[in-house]
Amino acid sequence: MSGAAIDKLFTEPAIQRVLSAGWQPVTYRQNTELHIEAWHWNPKGTWSDPSGKGYFTGSSEPGEMLRHTYGYPLPHRGATRNDGTDATGYGRLTDGDLSTYWKSNPYLTKAFTGEEDAAHPQWVVIDLANPLAINAIRIAWADPYAKRYLVQYWTGEQPITQPTKGAWITFSGGAIENGQGGTETHSLSPVPMPVRYLRIWMTESSNTCDTHGSADKRNCVGFAIRELYVGTVSASGEFHDSVLHTPDQGQTTTWSSSVDPWHEPANFDPRLGDQVGFDLFYTSGVTRGLPAMIPIAMVFNIPEDAAAEIAYLKKRNYPISYVEMGEEPDGQFMLPEDYAALYVQFADALHKVDPALKLGGPVYTGQNEDIVVWPDAQGRTSWTRRFVDYLRDHRHLKDLAFFPFEHYPYVPCTVTWNSLYDEPRLVSHIMDVWHDDGVPADVPMFITESNISWQTDESFVDIFGALWLADYAGAFLTSGGKALYYFHYLPMGVHHGCNNSMGTFGMFTTTEKDYQI
To answer: pTM for this structure?
Structure first.
């Protein structure tokens, strides 16, 4: 949302119209996690590097009113795009610039998890767009580099969105046991073979320090890659690259397991918009004075910052009902053990501020079926089961006080009147799935964001939308759901959606010129 929209919509006349809808407790939706950004919920704070960069912790001390908050795009991003970024930004693995690099999240290393790095393998995947004859890879490592890693190819369909419809196979020359860093070229197979997707699966780090120095141990753990090249090596040793290297969305597509939340002020881009500040949120009237569900950034954040956020709210005496831990990690294609490891660390930090806080996650994207991932060593593919098992195995299941997820039941552009008949089955079924995956029966389920679909059309503003909302709410609560929140509670503009029809996510509509409801 733009700063101008926030200033216009969080005013008494607009809020009074919003409250007339009758919804009660509200939830604050967090968007920087979707866009691979670090959230500065408080513009004032402290950088880990005294020179004014690194890992940022917002100030927990109340000062000037917080009206706006901002996201800082992370410079060590690995993904070209994912479910949250859309077509904004680009990855550093194929940007053609050897001065940039992808780096994994240091909080997933032994220094912070207490587990061997092999328990949280980090990975990058590259998509050549079509099957190409390849037999070699060249990796320009940064520090820290991988000492032990596998180079693999995918046998099935799309490995990111269809992770159980294929398998990763290590190339005959793809098992590297003693990586040396620098620029390494590996012959993967005796003859070129048709491959579209490749994965580098990293399990042991050099623990050498990146370009940010050795003063902070977070700079010296994990894995970092400057650039990837995939192609063929001729009999004379000449390397022919099939990767498109460009700093935009036209680059050869890559994805990564995680991203280091290191950043600096120069990464800020005011064109990306902002989110409402906590002081304006709580004092505008939109909460009705009731406890609100508050998010913390977790996927691209540090525990100290999340703890400072909660400390700030408590010093302001703002009531908190629940705390959502991050946002849509499945849309970032995280492995469940990685999200769970962060969950444990952040839960410990938050409960030091307030042991009574009620925490929940993972805040899934809207799904109608079980979310699956690449099989682990036991063959388990359920994201939820592996997440719950990790918390249980690490004695932190008690920190799962509620189970939040989103609900967008219909595929865009396929909504018909007959779709109404599907809603009760869809919402009750997915709750059964989560319980079958091991979510304890005494952990309440909340739908914290929902609408008909993730792309609008005329059904959102027609009688269909009203009937769907009534049926959905009734079916969810009848099936044992404990609370649901409407998205989007605040007014929004009407835009062209499916088949060029007009729709909106908003409960109320507003003109974008003067923000009149």
So the answer is: 0.96
